[in-house]
Give the backbone structure.
Amino acid sequence: MSLAAQRTLVLAALLPVLGSVYQTLVLTDLVDADIRRGVGYDKADGTWLSASWGLSMLLGVFAGLALSGKFGPRNILVAGMLVFALGNLMCGCAEGFRGLMLARFVEGLGKGMAIVLLRSFLYSRFDRMVFIAVLCYGLLAYSTRGTSPMVAAMVNEALGWNWVYWLSVPAGVGGAGLILLLVPADAPSPHANKGPKPDGLLIMLLVSWLISLLFVLGWREREGGFTSNLYTGIVAFNALLFACLAGRMMLSYSRGDQFARLLRSRSYLCSMGGRMLLLLHLAAILGVLSSFLTEGRGIPAVEAGSLFLPATISMAASFVACACIPNRDWRHLSLLAGVLGASACVLWLSTTGLATSNHALANIIAVWGACVGTLPASFLIDEVETLDKADMPAAAAFAIVVLATPLILVPSLMGTAVSEGRVAAYETQRELVRPERPVVAETLAGGMDRFSRLGLDQTQTAVLSAGTLGAIVELECATMGLQSGLRLLALLTGVLGAAVAVPLLLFPGKAIVNIRSE
């Protein structure tokens, strides 16, 4: 069999993985309310779900890395896909919150094992044509995510929320089968377990700190802040973990050449920062807009999902265009333009409201997608060209800090900004919407007149008119709160984007390989 045919079969075998495992971040954004009603849990319990899923993802990542050296990447990738399929089967069958939390833990464990191995597994199979693998990976793993919420909404509408999860089961099992059938077994590597190992205690402290940080940020409003002994204890425990983590990092990187290896990995760490920015944009924008469109504007979920499709097209186009830039400096310059442009688009979104047309929203989302598409074009190539595999253990812990910490902090800060913006809007509206004001009295009278024409009595018209005005005020306050959150998100993503792109421009590091020349 020719090399081209072998690579085609490898890509075909990995398509179910790219079409299922990589889509779960934003998959349920448009159907989240139906899932909560179906399982029967409150939105305030979401912190437990996030903690369960995040913990299992991190454990899956480290388990995949640890086991792949002993059993081979292909076998562990297959195991991860089977665990992922089992988790989705359990999610669809979940009855009650605890059942769903356990199911998400299993699903996250399988996802972590799969995603940590798939990229390097794909690249290794393409050998000297790795640039083609990078293009395929970027298009299929990242550019398609704008379509996932609409697909989930269509499945939910036709079959029910359970099938949003159950459709990933045949994808997971089929993907595992295709990998076993079409991809040859891993060649034995005598040096697989002889490289430097990650610091196990450092990893344990890091995972514990990140999970406790979720509760610090997620339970602040629920527990009433520092007025609660439980919340104060959680904050103190988080601070203790952070102190232990910082001390362990200082001790670990002071040994031998660990710090020098970390410095050599700076381009890789910036690449992880680029991946963090992409995931942050996708999770925040698609999640927030899904809630705003379906709950705030009352748009059907499938129609709301169709507004994200332009982002898929523009993101794919900009990704391919930027990935084909041969000069690293120009590619990093396009990255800087992309991250600042994406932040500007988020700021642009913050100016929209209830009266903004769907067409205008789709245009903004399309421009945002084009800007975000520059991110994977940079980090997918840089992490291949600049990272020495011998430096990976030294960079692993810092890479997770760079990736996970903003993904936990920024959405929480954004949620706080939304809540505070909404409260401030309520206070403003309370001062403005007073019955003694002529414009308010005229509005109420006009509403009563319209309802009276429908044959309602005076009491009913008064109640309905006041209720309609109150609903409008409620929606307007929610919109103003969302605008506050988007403005903060624009600021934070702009700062983080500059922190990622500027060092790459000033200190690009030495390219170990050039994947285009291969």
The CA atoms of residues 482 and 508 lie 37 Å apart. The first helix runs from residue 3 to 20.
